[in-house]
Design brief:
With about 230 residues, the protein is an alpha+beta fold. It has a single domain (about 5-225), classed as Spore Coat Polysaccharide Biosynthesis Protein SpsA, Chain A (Alpha-Beta Complex). It is built from 7 helices and 13 strands. It has helices at about 25-35, 50-55, 75-85, 85-90, 105-115, 190-200, 220-225, and strands at about 20, 20-25, 40-45, 65-70, 95, 100-105, 120-125, 130-135, 140-145, 155, 165-175, 205, 215. Strands 5, 7, 8, 9, 10, 11 and 12 form a 7-stranded mixed β-sheet that branches. Helix 3 crosses helix 6 (about 190-200). The chain is globular, with a radius of gyration of 17 Å.
Length: about 230
């Protein structure tokens, strides 16, 4: 709904809010294309027609664009994948990338790291202040989650070595087999799905502390990032 980005989203869907002159969704699509991604699906809800109209006109060489329509019901971060199951099962693995993330993370490196590590999913993470952190052990396996403001903590796996906390960068590579564990299509959180599987399967980390990263989904963050100069 883009509520945290108001007033920029009063009449514009979050995906089409221009950042440094380019709509956020176009920036992500071009970054994915540069990493060799040829099929991209965009899920739509708020001002869905405006997003569809924009994507119908957008031409990115070598890329086919697809739509997952959530106008009837928001599916949350995990449910969106379940709704797009038939599309995502085309390949051995797929990338999930939030539209409001601005980073110079090397997507090709993330893909290679994921395939070498043989995890069920690999989450790009970074040491940064955040209200909620993912907890990984010395083997790079997800073991739990902590709410840094309330102190609530959830552990799903006995750690091997010490734990480190990271912020989720909202860019990840997931094996298509991940979807087989969730046969029912329903709204649900991707983080909850990770925690549910982490007890028996490796959900790995890709640490990219050297990269810049901004959450453009919050108005104050957006304004701050827009004033910065990145190279």
């Amino acid at each position: 709904m883009g509520i945290r980005l108001k007033p920029l989203t009063d009449n514009t869907p979050k995906a089409l809010v221009p950042f440094k002159g380019t709509p956020m969704v176009e920036r992500i699509i071009r970054n994915l294309a540069d990493a060799g991604i040829s099929h991209i699906m965009v899920n739509v809800h708020h001002f869905a027609g405006k997003v569809v109209e924009f994507l119908d006109k957008l031409v990115v060489e070598g890329v086919s664009l697809h739509i997952s329509d959530e106008t009837g019901e928001l599916m949350d971060t995990g449910g969106a994948l379940l709704q797009a199951r038939e599309f995502l099962m085309w390949e051995e693995d797929f990338i999930v990338h939030n539209v409001d993330v601005y980073t110079d993370l090397d997507i090709s490196d993330l893909i290679r790291y994921h395939r070498d590590g043989k995890a069920l999913a690999t989450i790009a993470v970074k040491k940064r202040p955040t209200s909620r952190s993912l907890l990984f052990d010395g083997t790079g396996s997800l073991c739990g989650w902590i709410h840094n403001e309330t102190g609530e903590k959830r552990m799903v796996r006995t750690p091997s070595g010490s734990l480190e906390d990271f912020g989720n960068s909202c860019v990840q590579v997931i094996n298509a087999g991940f979807l087989d564990f969730f046969p029912k299509t329903e709204p649900r959180s991707l983080t909850e799905m990770y925690l549910e599987l982490a007890e028996r399967h490796k959900i790995g980390d890709f640490i990219h502390n050297q990269d810049y990263w901004y959450d453009l989904g919050r108005y104050n963050n957006f304004i701050k990032a827009d004033k910065e100069v990145f190279y």
